[in-house]
Amino acid sequence: IVLTQSPGTLSLSPGERATLSCRASQTVTSNFLAWYQLKAGQAPRLLIYGASSRATGTPDRFSGSGSGTDFTLTISRLEPEDFAVYYCQQFGSSPPYSFGGGTKVEI
Amino acid sequence: EVRLVESGGGLVQPGGSLRLSCVGSGFTFSNYWMCWLRLTPGKGLEWVANINTDASETSYLDSVKGRFSIFRDNTENSLYLQMDSLRAEDTALYFCARDPYIKAFQDWGQGTLVTVSS
Q: Is B110 within 8 Å of chain A by CB?
């Protein structure tokens, strides 16, 4: 499954709403779609799994939605620490468990 | 607290070999599938390989099949990635990670850098 994320870069200000898209080339099994945040020098951080479930410690300003082939990560009000790169990833019935190309959220 | 610590990265010439290690703590290592992933500037995040709890089942990214081998030692709470016939395109920051049965990689190590260059 190929995951296409858009836009490649999102330029926003703190306090604004961010909407990130992830489109799959075929249906994602059981909506096993996850979102990760990546900052330089840090390990990736799981934010959302199962398309819409927040991982432990994920602030409620982050929400995931979608099903089938179209998924969205929304950050309701950007905090300074949210400026990072975000990846979606599908966990289908068999490997490879592909990632999207990433969306950079910049100030 | 779940902790994963990778080691073994370094600079290696094309065609060379490296073995990466990952030690897990804070959870019952033998109960979980484990995997290796990598991060490159060009391709972003990429799943590389995974292994089931008793090492009877492994899977690999097509581009590393036949060159990389994932294995584990549950008595040592350790995961390994043997990388042979390394290529420049294998240059990346390699992570080990755990899926606690939620179909996502919840726990990650800090990574170990592999550079393939002459």
A: yes
